[in-house]
Design goal:
- The structure is a single chain.
- The chain has 161 residues and is mainly alpha-helical.
- The chain has one domain (34-160).
- 60% of the residues lie in helices and 9% in strands.
- It has helices spanning 2-22, 34-60, 63-79, 83-93, 98-117; strands spanning 125-129, 134-138, 157-160.
- A hairpin with a 4-residue loop joins strand 1 (125-129) and strand 2.
- Helix 2 packs antiparallel against helix 3, helix 2 runs antiparallel to helix 5 and helix 4 (83-93) packs antiparallel against helix 5.
- The termini are far apart.
């Protein structure tokens, strides 16, 4: 048993030493490649697109669509290494009704807004509802408040674009 552990440890050390020796040049002068930037933008698109699915499902009042969208957010967040967003999406997915879903959507929105701040280029706008004292992100255009019923759907103001 000890012999196996020693063999595994030796193999891992050899692999790490070899790979670090290959990477012994200055990376500071490298530009991020276009495919890498496109891959990161694609992950952003998936996180934001899945979040938008959830926002629209809340507006429609569709729990089945919301649960599917929450699952998509979780998967997209994992791909983008956003564990907090993934955790909050899981809480949204298990919401039992619209009231619970809206309550779960608020902290998820806060985290997606933080994630948005680290991104550049095409980002959704941040909207705030002073009545509910909650924010969300959405594409630019008409406001669609996910926290209120249809009568107050337009309640909100764009805070950041």
């Amino acid at each position: 048993m000890n012999h196996s552990r020693i063999l595994i440890a030796t193999t891992l050390m050899t692999l790490f030493t070899s790979s670090s020796m290959l990477a012994q040049h200055d990376h500071g002068s490298h530009q991020t490649s276009k495919p890498m930037k496109q891959a990161a933008a694609k992950q952003d698109d998936h996180v934001f697109a899945s979040y938008e699915e959830a926002r629209l499902a809340l507006i429609k009042g569709s729990m089945p669509e919301l649960k599917t969208a929450a699952r998509h957010i979780g998967l997209a967040a994992k791909s983008a290494n956003q564990s907090k967003i993934s955790e909050l999406a899981a809480k949204l997915e298990i919401a039992v009704d619209l009231k619970a879903a809206r309550a779960a959507f608020a902290p998820l929105s806060d985290e997606v807004i933080k994630y948005r701040e680290t991104r550049c280029c095409d980002r959704p706008v941040v909207v705030y509802c002073s009545m509910e004292k909650k924010s969300w992100v959405q594409p630019a255009g008409d406001i669609g408040n996910p926290y209120v019923d249809a009568a107050m759907r337009k309640c909100g103001e764009i805070r950041e674009d």
